[in-house]
Design goal:
The complex is a heterotrimer of chains A (723), B (73) and C (63). Chain A is an alpha/beta fold. Chain A is built from 31 helices and 12 strands. In chain A, strand 11 and strand 12 form a beta hairpin. In chain A, helix 7 runs antiparallel to helix 10 (219-236) and helix 23 crosses helix 26. Chain B has 73 residues and is of the alpha+beta class. Chain B contains 2 helices and 5 strands; from the N terminus they run E-H-E-E-E-H-E. The longest helix of chain B is centred in the middle third of the chain and has 9 residues, at 22-30. With 63 residues, chain C is mainly alpha-helical. Chain C has one domain (2-61). The N and C termini of chain C lie far apart (68 Å). Classes of the chains: A alpha/beta (723), B alpha+beta (73), C mainly alpha (63). Chains in contact: A-B, A-C. At the A-B interface, helix 3, helix 11, helix 12, helix 17 and strand 10 of A face strand 1, helix 1, strand 2, strand 3 and strand 4 of B.
Chain lengths: 723, 73, 63
């Protein structure tokens, strides 16, 4: 007989760690049917017939968010044999709020108080026996991170399931409220299982939408119940939902008084708080953010003395690739008698393309390392907090910022992370703009031009990052004023975890993962693309005859490229090389660099690995290079990311809108930058006029009055959780 | 009517009443902000929004617009 | 014919090697596609959205 135990608890209570502990590698991850909420289940280690069902992290069983609805539907309809409720011991009051609701379901509940090690460190004391008595169920201690207590908690849950005894319902509600609920229970007796009677009654008292929908009570019954509720509301001068919530918390306070002794005054400033006083300070926070990102990009990719990243990359390019590989490989292949076309393919094609990208690995590793540290320390969460106000100006919440943080590594998980945003419009907007943030793959493009034309300045990379962020903000403002996206921002209530020393294991692991995927892509996709490119640029029609060409300007690739190139002329890079490189970027953004490597004969020069820089500098000026960078930074992302967008949008029309928007935006911005930049060089022409018009148009879109914005505080609508 | 929005950094206030309705209000209550609870204002982000509070022993960040719905004594 | 073979041996071997590498790459790309592995190549362990790269028929039928 198989037993199912449901895991329920607040987000951040350690549920995931516990789930992994209990199920190990036997977990199946999928999603709840019909909704975009993750569903995890697995078998308890060592117990073949016990299934652990993980529920989404929730704060309560209200009907307002997808996660809550999914969790409560499961609990009410599927009736697991027991619930293992994880409670964060350092946050016990709020966590118990969910507990009271779970107990009402009539299913045996075992409470596992997690993070006991932290509780003890804080000097607080939790008496699990007294707590259990007050709540009416068994309470165990746990410290999931330290690996203590997990199995015992599961065993306790199994025992509770087998006893099938539901605890005595604790007396949560008092006075006339309890009275009213008892009445409601009587009224609906027989219509619902006796086990869940109390839960349904309470929900009806709260006028829970989903309950009313599902129970389909007769009109006179509804009126009867409504009468009871109205009476209570009048007596306590508050609305039903608030009454219930207040009473729950009042009950919890009584429980806490009996079972928990807190040591420190909870208003003392912790070390985290002291740091935050500066970091999230009203005036200093944004400049600090700029400085931090500048430092990150400079160390990773800049040209200064502390730029470890660049120094390592230079060494890689100069020594490893140029001298060892190119010089020797080419000579070796000739020596053993390989045909020149093969030598060309390998040296000028594969090595040139892949080498150009691999050269950036050191810089990428340093960048990923620094970003991983920022994340692990907890700084990134603060940024969401800081950015929330700016984001809210244009109707997005700080929650939309999290995908963008992820996107600094790779855009694909960033786009998928938008799933946590409930509001449909916000989600779509986040998906559309996440691609603007420079991902790891775009960095080599920046690095290449920074080195070739800007003396390796770290400012190029930093400016690229902030242009990405700026594009997101500008897009948000513009789009929120259009009919498609107008609407109120989602409620933003967020917990800020304390700062902690970054764990070397996590940071190194994250760095390695991102770095390795970069290398893997170089060895697969980029390699293949380089070969194809080499053929296309090495062969062409000369005087009507098809064959190998000396000058790749006459190649097949050039012919095709020249057809498309004029499109980019207003942006300053109307060369076939630029056009081709941009298109290869669709396969993978690193390809832009690989393409330049192949086209400009990266491998050709043995001594001076920087030769490609000179050639590039010949075809691009500082201005056109910057414009090129901006375009590639902002335009449509690689196929993998486009695939992710398509999966998330689940709608062809929207996918095209997203891609079209990104390309259009990129084009406009790059054009404005180039044309207006040319004014400084003394050129003024049709292009300048067009650019000025576009700029004016942008400014108008930014500043125009939002006719869709409520001037009122917000009229909350009852039905939420759009999907 | 004095609301949480008017509270200053470092101040500890007591909630008198919650205004508004629907999911936002519910979410605020679910987080522990109910009638009679005491809240300490820890920080206010740059540009004044959001506010970071300490409620029932943990840190919570809330928008100023939401704070306006929380009437304090 | 043998003369030609011996003269161009190096090229032949080299060309075969390159072809083999390309085939490997192509096979890997197709395989990843079939398994719906995200193009990020990040490894789903740390990805918060691992639930979507590994949809499982068994748990979906729980309903």
């Amino acid at each position: 007989m198989s037993i199912t135990i449901a895991l329920a608890g607040n987000p951040n209570s350690g549920k995931t760690t516990l789930f992994n502990d209990l199920t190990g590698s036997s977990q199946y991850v999928g999603n709840w049917p019909g909704v975009t909420v993750e569903k995890k289940e697995g078998r308890l280690k060592g117990h073949k017939d016990v299934v652990i069902q993980d529920l989404p992290g929730i704060y309560s069983l209200s009907p307002y968010t997808l996660e809550e609805v999914v969790a409560r539907s499961y609990l009410v309809k599927e009736k697991p044999d027991a619930i293992l409720n994880i409670v964060d011991g350092t946050n016990i009051e709020r966590n118990l709020y969910l507990t009271t609701q779970l107990i009402e379901l009539g299913i045996p509940v075992v409470v596992a108080v997690n993070m006991m090690d932290l509780v003890r460190k804080n000097g607080d004391r939790i008496d699990t026996n007294k707590l259990g008595e007050a709540l009416g169920c068994k309470v165990v201690e746990m410290s999931a991170l330290k690996g203590q207590g997990s199995l015992e908690a599961a065993e306790a849950a199994i025992a509770a399931a087998q006893e099938k005894k539901q605890g005595e319902h604790p007396h949560v509600f008092t006075g006339s409220v309890e009275h009213a609920i008892a009445h409601i229970e009587e009224s609906i007796q027989g219509r619902v299982d006796a086990q869940v009677l109390r839960w349904h009654a309470v929900k009806l008292f709260e006028r829970d939408e989903k309950e009313l929908q599902e129970l389909q009570l007769a009109q006179d019954l509804k009126t009867h119940i409504e009468q009871h509720i109205a009476d209570c509301e009048k007596e306590l001068d508050d609305d039903a939902e608030s009454i219930i919530t207040n009473q729950r918390y009042a009950y919890i306070s009584r429980v806490i008084d009996r079972a928990v002794k807190k040591k420190a005054s909870r208003h003392a400033l912790s070390v985290s708080d002291k740091i935050d006083r500066i970091v999230t300070n009203r005036i200093l926070a944004l400049p600090i953010f700029v400085v931090v990102m500048w430092a990150v990009y400079t160390i990773a990719m800049g040209g200064t003395k502390v730029s470890i990243g660049t120094m390592a990359t230079d060494w890689t390019n100069d020594v490893l690739v140029s001298e060892w590989i190119c010089g020797n490989l080419g000579a070796w292949m000739e020596a053993i008698g390989c045909a020149p076309w093969l030598t060309g393919l390998v040296v000028d094609g594969i090595v040139a393309g892949v080498g150009a990208v691999i050269g950036f690995v050191p810089q990428m590793l340093v960048l990923f390392f620094l970003l991983a540290i920022l994340e692990d320390v907890g700084y990134m969460a603060r940024i969401a907090f800081i950015m929330d106000r700016i984001f809210r100006r244009f109707g997005l919440s700080g929650k939309s910022f999290i995908p963008m943080l992820v996107a600094t590594g790779c855009g694909v998980p960033g786009i998928m992370a938008s799933r946590t945003i409930e509001n449909d419009r916000d989600r779509k907007m986040t998906i559309m703009t996440t691609g603007f943030i420079p991902c790891g793959a775009k960095m080599p493009i920046i690095g290449l031009f920074a080195g070739a034309l800007f003396g390796g300045s770290g400012w190029i990379a930093t400016s690229a990052y902030f242009i990405g962020v700026g594009a997101v903000i500008v897009s948000g403002i513009i789009l929120k004023k259009t009919k498609l996206f107008a609407g109120d921002p989602a409620p933003f209530v967020m917990e800020l975890p304390a700062y902690h020393i970054p764990s070397a294991k996590n940071v190194l692991h994250a760095t390695w993962e991102r770095g390795w995927s970069f290398i893997k892509r170089a060895g697969t996709v980029i390699l293949a693309s380089s070969v194809v490119l080499w053929f296309l640029q090495g062969f062409g029609f000369v005087d009507g005859v098809f064959g190998m060409v000396e000058d790749n300007n006459t190649s097949l690739l050039a012919s095709v490229g020249n057809v498309v190139a004029p499109v980019f002329a207003p942006l300053g890079f109307g060369t076939w090389q630029g056009a081709v490189a941009t298109f290869t970027g669709l396969i993978a953004k690193e390809n832009v660099v690989a393409t330049f490597g192949v086209l400009y004969g990266f491998a050709e020069v043995a001594e001076d690995g920087a030769e490609i820089w000179t050639l590039l500098a010949g075809d691009f000026t500082a201005l056109t290079a910057y414009s090129f960078m901006i375009f590639n930074l902002l335009c449509a992302p690689c196929f993998a990311a486009i695939g992710a967008i398509k999966r998330e949008m689940n709608n062809a029309k929207w996918t095209w809108i997203a891609i079209g928007y990104m390309c259009g935006f990129a084009y406009v911005v790059a054009m404005i930058v180039y044309q207006l930049g040319m004014v400084f060089a003394g050129h003024f022409g049709v292009g300048t006029v067009v650019a000025l018009l576009l700029l004016a148009g942008l400014v108008y879109l930014l500043l125009r009055k939002n006719k869709y914005q409520d001037s009122e505080l917000r009229v909350p609508v009852r039905s939420v959780a759009a999907k | 009517m004095k609301t949480l929005k008017d509270a200053k950094v470092g101040e500890t206030v007591v909630v008198a009443r919650l205004h508004g309705e629907g999911p936002v209000k519910r979410r605020i209550m679910d987080m522990g902000i109910t009638k009679g609870v005491s809240i300490q204002v820890r920080k206010v982000a740059p540009l004044g929004d959001p506010m970071e509070l300490n409620v029932r022993g943990y840190e919570l960040s809330v928008r100023k617009a939401d704070a306006e719905m929380i009437e304090i004594a | 014919m043998w003369l030609w073979l011996s003269e161009n041996l190096a090229t032949l071997v080299g060309a075969l090697a390159v072809a083999a590498v390309l085939a490997l790459v192509a096979w890997k790309i197709v395989r990843d596609h079939r398994r719906h592995k995200g193009g990020c190549g990040g490894g789903c362990g740390s990805c918060p959205n691992a639930g979507f790269c590994h949809p499982d028929a068994q748990s979906a039928e729980h309903r």
